[in-house]
Amino acid sequence: MTAWNSARRAKEERITAGARYAQGKEVAADDATALLEAVIRPGDRVCLEGDNQKQADLLAVALAAANNQILYDLHMVQSGVVLPEHLDVFESGIAKRLDFAYSGPQSQRIAQLLFGGKIALGAVHTYLELFARYFVDLTPQVALIAAVSADRDGNLYTGPNTEDTPTVVEATAFKDGIVIAQVNQIVDKVPRVDIPGDRVHFVVQANKPFYVEPLFTRDPAAITETQILTAMLALKGIYAPYGVQRLNHGIGFNTAAIELLLPTYGERLGLRGKVATQWALNPHPTLIPAIESGWVQNIHCFGSEVGMDEYIRARSDIYFTGPDGSLRSNRAFCQTAGLYACDMFIGSTLQIDLQGHSSTVTAGRIAGFGGAPNMGSDARGRRHSSAPWLIAGEQADPATPAALRRGRKLVVQIGETFGDKNAPLFVDRLDALTLAERLQLDLAPIMVYGDDVTHIVTEEGIANLLLCRNADEREHAIRGVAGYTPVGRQRNKKLVEQLRERKIIQRPEDLGIDPLDADRSLLAARSVKDLVRWSGGLYSPPAQFRNW
Amino acid sequence: MTAWNSARRAKEERITAGARYAQGKEVAADDATALLEAVIRPGDRVCLEGDNQKQADLLAVALAAANNQILYDLHMVQSGVVLPEHLDVFESGIAKRLDFAYSGPQSQRIAQLLFGGKIALGAVHTYLELFARYFVDLTPQVALIAAVSADRDGNLYTGPNTEDTPTVVEATAFKDGIVIAQVNQIVDKVPRVDIPGDRVHFVVQANKPFYVEPLFTRDPAAITETQILTAMLALKGIYAPYGVQRLNHGIGFNTAAIELLLPTYGERLGLRGKVATQWALNPHPTLIPAIESGWVQNIHCFGSEVGMDEYIRARSDIYFTGPDGSLRSNRAFCQTAGLYACDMFIGSTLQIDLQGHSSTVTAGRIAGFGGAPNMGSDARGRRHSSAPWLIAGEQADPATPAALRRGRKLVVQIGETFGDKNAPLFVDRLDALTLAERLQLDLAPIMVYGDDVTHIVTEEGIANLLLCRNADEREHAIRGVAGYTPVGRQRNKKLVEQLRERKIIQRPEDLGIDPLDADRSLLAARSVKDLVRWSGGLYSPPAQFRNW
């Protein structure tokens, strides 16, 4: 006789085992480790909520403190590997296998643990891909999540950092898994219900608010004139001719410069209302001047950003907010928006090779992908048209009859030819390939593949890869904007000039841009304090960004 | 002074206007039209929940009955155009513009209204693409949705047909829109909370349960021996060599035949546990024998299927279910699973051209796309490997070094060379092109583009397009399985034989399959009654499928 409800019975047993530490659904913080030891089973798939920003830090500490004779060989399936405890569990043997998407601050240690064989790597995913697998072959048996508050029935309020929580909970709770939430406080009534209580089995009140990293704050004071030049090139050479209205900006100073140039340089180009109106984007503080100047119609957010709460509340026409007035973010839907409803993704990377493949992996650092592979890929399932998408499609494939020609998403890599510590952005061979060999990975960790990249912008100009007709043209389009890097110096000058005549390469002067005009006076805000002023005092930057 | 909270104020005004007809959140069915006239504004974007299966039919009737002097020029943004009322609103001028994804039963009338200029068409989308736009440029101001029950706070229980509801509500409610739900009953406590009440503004109790179409029920009695042959070819020629475990089946008798062959022919091939273990799929009754025979590990569902409720409840290890025991479906997540976590999509179509483009549009019928463009496209953001994906990638591109080579999703079109009413499956020119000309569309409504299709299966054999090295080979691979259709008869026989030697074309005999073995005795169930028997009486087919 086959058992057809074994997971349901196991769930009941787990709840019974955990209930010893609970009053109703509430568990004291001191009992968190005992709760996890009672509820989790060796070999379980566990999602320890590590989002791009929000961290279930109390539960991370509690899991890391578990007895590795009781809990071992866990398979961690979570977006972010961000806190030290996320890796401590691998050191101690509590966890063995890892599927993840992003590992910013732990990129060096995760590499060491992989090299040392302490982590069996499933794959490095893009967020939406990992979410997809939650419903097919990586469904968590236990989810350890974070929220702002809970009521006694377990209804959760996530506040502005909803992020991955609804997705993780849906996959876990509806497949007979156990959901344990840490909350900052337990209240009589939550300000809004982000997660219904019948999906939540235990609630642990934390002794301090969960950790959130201000990941998307860029201090305008640190933006260089070279970055301003690349921003001018992007605005005049890409945003304007394609008329890009629906878009996503990656993290970084180059895109922050674009945001701060909209109300100044963009205004001068007459682009207000014509470009950058609808966004899939975290609440970047550097977008405040453009919002205040009437550039932006609406923004849907993956997560939130520290200090932006009051500003968002006062600008509900722009953001998605709940009945309580605070932001409702949702990474799954925002990634879907980035994939299917945006006409452009523009972001930075650490290395680009001669095929246009890019990677943020360098020797000894595995940073993960985050959302870039998803947003930086052409959505082949897309069936609605828009002007920028049609123009890009025609540039890529002028021969196909219009009705049978697909458009193309604009995928733009922007950066300086030499980046941090003077490391060249352009390389003959990606470090990602060396890593793949060393770890015997099926695939090198490529963030955006060359065949999805449409433009590369550096201070030397714009390379439009859509217009290249073969691999050789493509290689020289890349060399032609690679400046004085070794890759750039190995260019065939004549071929590069031919590409320039065909506008495959456009120099600043070809676009009527004088590099000497790339001045910090063009920035709508030149400091964090300026951003606060633009916001009418509503933006409240975190302490590390205040120097006044 | 810019108004930054105008949508919030408008929401309050709308709620106040609607509250005249409400006690708490409850509105009598007789007042539904008055409620809509009070709450909706001319020109609004409105989602009138029309899912693939579940229909907010009371609200559809109520909207169609509105005064077109009060409500006009609405922009309807909804997945399904299924009920007559969905189009009546365009006849009367209440609605003007339409963005949608699927229009099965209304495909003829929607074409007439488009030709007649009564509908201004935005675009025909795939579901996930339309959902994406809900968060960027097609956010509804008002959502009219359907649920099984509500409590007095507006908490909703959707039952097994959750489908699109969470997505529609999230986009609407968190952008200061109004959510109106019709429910079958109002109760003290809902069995589970599918939609939290603070996202729901008005609840209308319907006088009868909302309409659900049994869209995924295929009577095994109607499966032909030709369909059985194509199923054998698919199993032995594709499922087995690629080892496809994670997959989606489209609607149709060809894929139903595959499902019914798993416990018989599939078992004989030794494939149990090796293929078809994890699914993104509606609860197809024809999968019951495979489930009962231990083939299936888990299934995540877009929606549900009439009559499958008790079976699903008793098989919770297989399906995603709630604490109440009934199915939790979710189209957005299941489509995401189909895009990023499945290695194969296999489905049928009405026309395939010589480039491999396929379409379900025929002269005078616009059926829409549903999920096929999304699931039938290669996910270029995917970064995890699997055996089938790597094999397909290598077949398509043997030259690229493995670490830099992307895999490929298997996208299979399966059908008979002559379909319904003897219409040829293969055509020189798609009717979709004629339609695009007539309606001056930017894009012909292609369901799956040829460059995403990897295999075509007919009773004449399998064409593996991955192995084709140029357009000519591709064209002849298609002609080579097109049988006695005009396209098939125009083949160059010598070229086709060369393709067969290279295994680009595989005939039944090349796979060791004797077409005479394609017998109905191979079907694990030969009738709906057989399916009921397999289910131990748990499957309760709708009346139109009962003939005993």
TrEMBL record, chains A, B:
Enzyme nomenclature, EC number: 2.3.1.187
Signal peptide from the UniProt entry: none
Gene Ontology molecular functions: acyltransferase activity
Matches recorded under Gene3D superfamilies: Glutaconate Coenzyme A-transferase
Keywords recorded for this protein, A-Z: Acyltransferase, Transferase
Record-linked InterPro entries: MadA, NagB/RpiA_transferase-like
Xref: PANTHER family: ACETATE COA-TRANSFERASE YDIF, MALONATE DECARBOXYLASE ALPHA SUBUNIT
Protein name (Swiss-Prot/TrEMBL): Acetyl-S-ACP:malonate ACP transferase
